[in-house]
Amino acid sequence: MEKPQPELEQEKDPEAEAAARPLLTDLYQITMALAYWRAGRAREPAEFELFFRRCPFGSSFTLAAGLRDCMRFLRAFRLRPADVKYLASVLPPDTDPAFFEHLQGLDCSAVTIRAQPEGTLAFAHVPLLCVSGPLLLVQLLETPLLCLINYASLVATNAARLRLIAGPKKRLLEMGLRRAQGPDGGLTASTYSYLGGFDSSSNVLAGQLRGVPVAGTLAHSFVTSFSGYAQSQVLMLAPASGQGPPKDLSILTESWLGKVCEYLGLRAEETHLGERAAFVAYALAFPQAFQGLLDSYSVMRSGLPNFLAVALALAELGYRAAGVRLDSGDLLQQAQEIRSIFRKCASHFQVPWLEAVSIAVSNNIDERVLDQLAHKDSEVDLIGIGTNVVTCPLQPSLGCVYKLVSVRGQPCRKLTEDSEKQTLPGSKAAYRLYNGEGAPILDLLQLEEEPPPQAGQELRVWPLDVSGGDCRGQTLTPVSLEPLLRVYFHQGQMCEPIPSLAESRALAQKSLSCLSSAQKRLENPEPYQVALSEKLHALLGSVARSSQEGP
Amino acid sequence: MEKPQPELEQEKDPEAEAAARPLLTDLYQITMALAYWRAGRAREPAEFELFFRRCPFGSSFTLAAGLRDCMRFLRAFRLRPADVKYLASVLPPDTDPAFFEHLQGLDCSAVTIRAQPEGTLAFAHVPLLCVSGPLLLVQLLETPLLCLINYASLVATNAARLRLIAGPKKRLLEMGLRRAQGPDGGLTASTYSYLGGFDSSSNVLAGQLRGVPVAGTLAHSFVTSFSGYAQSQVLMLAPASGQGPPKDLSILTESWLGKVCEYLGLRAEETHLGERAAFVAYALAFPQAFQGLLDSYSVMRSGLPNFLAVALALAELGYRAAGVRLDSGDLLQQAQEIRSIFRKCASHFQVPWLEAVSIAVSNNIDERVLDQLAHKDSEVDLIGIGTNVVTCPLQPSLGCVYKLVSVRGQPCRKLTEDSEKQTLPGSKAAYRLYNGEGAPILDLLQLEEEPPPQAGQELRVWPLDVSGGDCRGQTLTPVSLEPLLRVYFHQGQMCEPIPSLAESRALAQKSLSCLSSAQKRLENPEPYQVALSEKLHALLGSVARSSQEGP
User: Fold this and answer.
1) What range does the domain containing B43 cover?
2) What is the CB neighbour count within 10 angstroms for residue B181?
């Protein structure tokens, strides 16, 4: 069962509106706010950039994600009186009440956001978000924006890796809600693993609020809750055609069980009656979409013959079974055996659709296991991944940062002795330059005031080295290019709609297809280059020198 | 700055009331619900157990946590019409409308929860939660309850490990909000890392909603946003005593800078004026709680002398500086150097409190680095940990499961061929047995109907082996014992208040102190034993046999 859903109710639901509350922030944002305000600097125009320093999981790329949640957060941003009262309780008792009035009046009507669209491939040091507005306010936004972008981009990238491994045909189901960091972690994971390339999620709320296609089967508890047919009050099922009287599905099933066991050389006494009764109950509820979970007792001696008996009983009434699921053991090997038995039975019992019944697998599947399950000879159709997509165990955080790049139009820079933590000063523009084959050559960072690069025109650029420093200049001539940062939010107004989740998902797959296979490789990929314009490179030098020389 | 807070507003805030929405569940819960309902089994009395199979991180223990969120979830559990409408859109179009009426009428008034109190040490296979009620409903609760318990217990346990490493004196600040799985992941992390033994969190919302003490300093952006004093509109500060005229703190600071640099043999020209102006601005906002972030430019040549200049200027006005923070480089080594300079200056400038100014450190601190920072000669006072507490990188999910143990009073069991995934049948009671020294000997699982074990009376028990199987019986005589599962929620009513977060935090520390040091060891600890009663052990054998023999 897998149903695409329109983005239902998203706008109607007040809980869905605010992605995070304003106080979901670090206390130091509040203490700094007070200090900015005391210094009379609250309204100074400032710009921050949100970026990461290294792509996660050793990949050459990151998928930009989380922007839709940032927009919901910014539009609803407003401190309630209770919030301000709470802040007063943690600040010094003699804090000027006018500061709290200032906080109470804050909203995002003076904030502008430029961002890379969701689903864009993003690279180190190229801003995902440029946030400009009054210094005090855009400082306050740091933590919630990081919180909304960091994990969304991480899990989308993780999902994209899993999709690359699985190839385009295997269906991938995200089912990690129970292992996520609480309710919202689960919702975020489901939303952005779909954006990254999964087909569906088990998370019903993600279906309701975000339009993610939802899918599901049944659990062992359902199977083990049955001990026999006597527990079911209903056993009659009408034929699919609507023609003819209803029949007792348990009687049909018992009769088919004998035939199945005889044909496969199994002992009917070894099959579990409770399991079969559970399958019959599920089939009665979903005659058009019957699925069996095969491993509550013994897959080959009980689950499989029971499934076949019910499937053939359904076939007799004109229905088609939908699938089976395995949740333990050697999944690949069992899928081969099951497919081979499906084929034999399809032919022997003359039920052709039986050979193509979907085989779904789950059980702590990681990249390595997925690689086996995605092998060209694999008979697995659908792969459910929970923990290993949701928790991103290879690297459970992306490490985006939010750094001040200008105040009052003057470039700022952090010049710590840890060179990797140094930042690039100034308000920037970013372009992706392409070669004649439509493949991206590099991302170019330049100052926002510079004229954009031109297609067909030679440029001198300064590639960033891995440590965030710079190396020697080079020249190149892009055949085409695109600006990476779009103005989504201007002075408090949305000025471009956020594409639907499905559109961003399609963009992600399209962008990935432009990378070379060496760049897409999951281990030791060829790095993607990011470079500075001549002018930005020069500014970097001058800000560094002026600091070394002292003020 | 670190302020303990009462649990403010928790009850008043509607958003804080429902910990999760009913649709935050896996779709298969809904499909199973329909199948149970169709079979006429929706209201059959059933019991599920929520437990884990292995303690996380290689620890011998887990801290039970998340119960308070489960209670909030259960009390508010109710499907809204829009929820039911959404479910109708993903179920077959011919689904009986009476099923949706049944869903619409669901609440937890027939649900009973027995649970281990928050902050209890919990061990493998001993239920954290026993959930009984109507089969359809308690099945539906699976995913949200797992979601609320799994991560809460994981992060509390992770925090407890970090507290064991840090020892009782170092202050631990959780600051991982920006690296959490979205807003709620951050809130959950802050709440339960406090429960696990941290002192405070940077997360303001956790302070507001959960009463977690909040703490914070300042960020590099604040420092780099200043280039000089001209940016500040206010520079005057009144003496702490209130006696005497305000003085210009920038003038005092400049004068102290000369003395500091002269005494320490530093060049005043190498100090960064913007950094100093930022410190002055912060000091003007927080004269009683001035803190300096030292590594925006150069710790030893700029951050430290600038901090000292401002601190001594404040001292002249009768204030005491609160602390410094380091966020890069060799934290331990720098803390030693800074402390030694604080001592020299305290003595030279006759400002005794200066030598005890708090040194806070952060920068991707993990267990290994924390172990160094907690060394007895370490001069570090406060340690901020973000990613490594929040994301639990050593094991990012706990793997709690939720298994059906009885229906209509009959024990159920999953008997998969994967022996580790087999479950223990029947509704159970659990006791912790203690020896004469008050140390726990083992946790005993028995059937709920059995009489409780008695102190001083010999018992025959069957220890579980690591794989979840059982081994040979043994006898023992507990000197004292306590029941582990308490009825918190009975037929829809809270029947015991959930202790405050601070009380649960204290319980966790007390429980940990009862473990032997071999059991508390973080690597290769001595395992803690869990055993079955004679009767439960016998039931296990009989359920296994009856299944092998077939129905």
Assistant:
1) 26-160+396-548
2) 33
